[in-house]
């Protein structure tokens, strides 16, 4: 695997840490900037929306740029807005920096996924995608807890400075070793690529990726609350639970990168609805909660990683925009899943409703995959390497 793929993974780790660390920094931001907690929490939603909107827009805008210029430009902008966020005392400015950070993060990830798929042999695309996405899972395992700890010890601004500093080695290596050609070659046709992305296999894979990610984050966003309110675990145990989920996610991405065939994805899709339902039914026990969190992290991120590879492969005729639409689909799920879970939990008065939402979304994904296979236009084919 080229060293450059690991460089991209480092940048994705820093960006993933920035995206998810806000959940642990909200109280400090609210106190420091004298805003309600709900307002500070809206920074997370702003980031998700910026990712959804920014991915296709930034990919289309930068389609004819040399890939080194695109990657370095997006990463430089990411560093600058984190410095601005760390320095500001105005909540409106901080809110704006989060939107800009999300937009350029989406642009970077979209280009990075296309580059990762193009710089390796076709048989190694699954592993390249897995290495790239392992940056996100490592952010869940290590980056987010570290950011929360740093924010508690040195203030939320220190976490922003740390993310900016973490990007600098990756930025230097991007300047040195990124490919110089444009994402789609000299003749990039956005209109032609959009036609490719409207094809049924691509649309099926995108919707399936959104459903799987929606199911994943519907419960992940509420996992800490489930642990404290349903399982009655002390707050000090929650980081260990989140780390268990993240460790499972890292294992799932790694296995999908090495053995991400269609059979593995179909098995994961079949198991996920039952797994989320089992979590809802057994969440009152600490042991089942930890075991299921790790297992569902592995299944969810393994299937998601394989589906990312599937989209990039069936959308090979859209090298400039394929990665951006994949990024947008994943973030539609990451935004919609927790939103639906929050509504369900409030209506039911029980945080376990979030896991039932995950089960429903995963079941919808499994039904979509089965219907597509029966129609002969499978989102995940029997011989697919699916990542």
Characterization of the model:
By secondary structure, the protein is mainly alpha-helical. Residues 378-387 have low confidence and may be disordered. The two termini are 15 Å apart. The chain is built from 14 helices and no strands. 81% of the residues lie in helices and 0% in strands.
Notable characteristics:
single chain; 387 residues; mainly alpha; 81% helix; disordered C terminus
The tally of helices reads 14
User: What proportion strand?
Assistant: under 5%
**Percentage of residues in helical conformation:** over 70%
Largest sheet: number of strands, sense, barrel closure: none
Q: Count every beta strand, where a strand is a DSSP E run of 2 or more residues.
A: 0
Topology as a string of helices (H) and strands (E) = HHHHHHHHHHHHHH
Mean pLDDT value = 80
What is the radius of gyration?
20 Å
The end-to-end span amounts to 15 Å
Q: Which term fits the overall shape?
A: globular
SS content category? mainly alpha
Query: Which stretches of 5+ consecutive residues score pLDDT under 50?
Result: 378-387
């Amino acid at each position: 695997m080229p060293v450059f793929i690991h460089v991209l993974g480092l940048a994705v780790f820093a960006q993933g840490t920035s995206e998810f660390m806000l959940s642990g920094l909200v109280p400090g931001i609210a106190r420091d900037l004298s805003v309600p907690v709900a307002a500070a929490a809206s920074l997370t939603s702003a980031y998700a929306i910026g990712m959804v909107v920014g991915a296709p827009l930034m990919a289309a805008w930068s389609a004819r740029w040399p890939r080194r210029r695109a990657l370095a430009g997006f990463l430089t902008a990411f560093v600058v807005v984190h410095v601005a966020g760390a320095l500001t005392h105005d909540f409106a400015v901080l809110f704006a920096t989060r939107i800009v950070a999300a937009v350029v993060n989406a642009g970077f990830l979209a280009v990075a996924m296309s580059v990762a798929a193009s710089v390796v042999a076709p048989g190694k695309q699954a592993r390249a995608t897995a290495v790239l996405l392992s940056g996100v899972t490592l952010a869940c395992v290590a980056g987010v807890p570290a950011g929360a700890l740093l924010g508690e010890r040195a203030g939320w601004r220190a976490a922003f400075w740390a993310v900016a500093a973490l990007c600098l080695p990756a930025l230097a290596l991007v300047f040195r070793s990124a490919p110089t050609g444009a994402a789609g070659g000299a003749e990039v046709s956005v209109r032609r690529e959009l036609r490719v992305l409207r094809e049924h296999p691509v649309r099926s894979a995108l919707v399936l990726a959104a459903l799987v990610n929606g199911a994943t984050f519907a419960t992940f966003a509420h996992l800490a609350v489930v642990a404290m309110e349903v399982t009655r675990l002390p707050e000090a145990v929650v980081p260990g639970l989140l780390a268990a989920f993240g460790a499972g996610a890292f294992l799932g991405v790694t296995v999908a990168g090495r053995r991400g065939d269609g059979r593995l994805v179909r098995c994961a899709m079949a198991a996920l609805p039952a797994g989320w339902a089992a979590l809802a039914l057994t969440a009152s026990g600490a042991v089942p909660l930890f075991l299921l969190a790790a297992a569902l992290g592995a299944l969810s991120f393994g299937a998601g990683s394989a589906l990312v590879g599937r989209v990039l492969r069936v959308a090979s005729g859209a090298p400039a925009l394929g990665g951006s639409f994949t990024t947008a689909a994943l973030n539609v799920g990451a935004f919609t899943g927790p939103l639906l879970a929050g509504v369900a939990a409030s209506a039911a008065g029980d945080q376990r409703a979030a896991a039932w939402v995950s089960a429903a979304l995963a079941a919808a994904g499994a039904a979509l995959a089965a219907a597509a296979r029966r129609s002969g236009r499978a989102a995940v084919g029997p011989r697919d390497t699916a990542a």
